[in-house]
Amino acid sequence: MRASFPAARSLTTHAYAKINLGFEVLGRHPDGLHEVSSILQTIDLADRLVFAPSDRINLRCTEMEVSPDNLILQAAYLLREHAGVSRGCEIECHKRIPVSAGLGGGSADGAATLRALESFWDLNVDEAMLGDLAARLGADVPFCLFGGTALATGTGRVVEWLPDAPVHWVVLVPLTADDPAKTANMYGRLRESQWSDGGAVRRQEAAIRSGNLDYSAVRSAFTAPARDTWPAAGGALEALEGSGALAASVSGAGPSAFGLFGSRADANRAAEKVRIGGLPVRVQKFTGPVA
């Protein structure tokens, strides 16, 4: 049965997925964290979050089990602690972004929760502090606060917003991994020979600043490990490349893969070709910053 809230003031927001228009690993810090350089892009696939008044913080979510480390709950408790308030909220999350797919769904949910509860609880927390709180939750959360197109450096938490990338359509093959430590394990599978100097991301940044997209720079350090770990990811990349994509890559640490197209018609035709191979397919679109 679908959960519903009592008739009371509520707030609804959306948490948008992301893809990586370039992802390079530059090296590793002494603490074990990796130095990365990445171009992040929001797409119009989104979870829907509804917030309603309550004396305590409670979360219900469709399509997934709620665990204590859920980023929605972590964000709510972190913001409440920072603001020094004792307010609660009833949260309902309608999942559309696949879980553990490399599309930033958890990060997007955490960021959307920070944005929504700052307003819902009338806290008057400035954007810089929200960004600091987001960085405590995870590497992609600061970007997901505002979305659009951005350059992420350092351990992924240093975000510089770029002009909106030219609109492209995305043929997305959403694949999921049953591995709670997926990202850490994928970093562990990287060899130093797969590290790079950030040149591809710099080229992509320059192209976006000039109003273009460099298809040759759409690449990911996780492509080879993803192919080795998930045969379906390798099959998806081959299908996308064979469908006429301008560029194809894995997103995040995988296993999802995507191809870029200049028009919706081209994307729809390619999606049909990929779907014939038995792969799950969605057609999405670049979107700008979160309102």
What does it look like?
By secondary structure, the protein is of the alpha+beta class. The chain has one domain (11-285): 2-Layer Sandwich (Ribosomal Protein S5, domain 2). 33% of the residues lie in helices and 26% in strands. It has nine helices and ten strands. It has helices spanning 71-83, 105-120, 127-137, 141-146, 182-189, 199-209, 223-229, 231-242, 264-276; strands at 11-28, 34-52, 57-61, 89-94, 149-153, 158-161, 169-173, 247-250, 257-261, 282-285. The strands form two sheets. Strands 1, 2, 3, 4, 5 and 6 form a six-stranded mixed sheet that branches. It has a four-stranded antiparallel sheet with strand order 8-9-7-10, with helices on one face. A hairpin with a 4-residue loop joins strand 5 (149-153) and strand 6 (158-161). Helix 1 (71-83) runs parallel beside helix 2. The longest helix has 16 residues, at 105-120. The chain starts with 10 loop residues before the first strand and ends in a 6-residue tail after the last strand. The relative contact order is 0.18. Mean pLDDT is 94; it is low at 1-7.
Describe, in short, the structure shown:
The protein is α+β, with helices and mostly antiparallel strands. It has helices at 71-83, 105-120, 127-137, 141-146, 182-189, 199-209, 223-229, 231-242, 264-276, and strands at residues 11-28, 34-52, 57-61, 89-94, 149-153, 158-161, 169-173, 247-250, 257-261, 282-285.
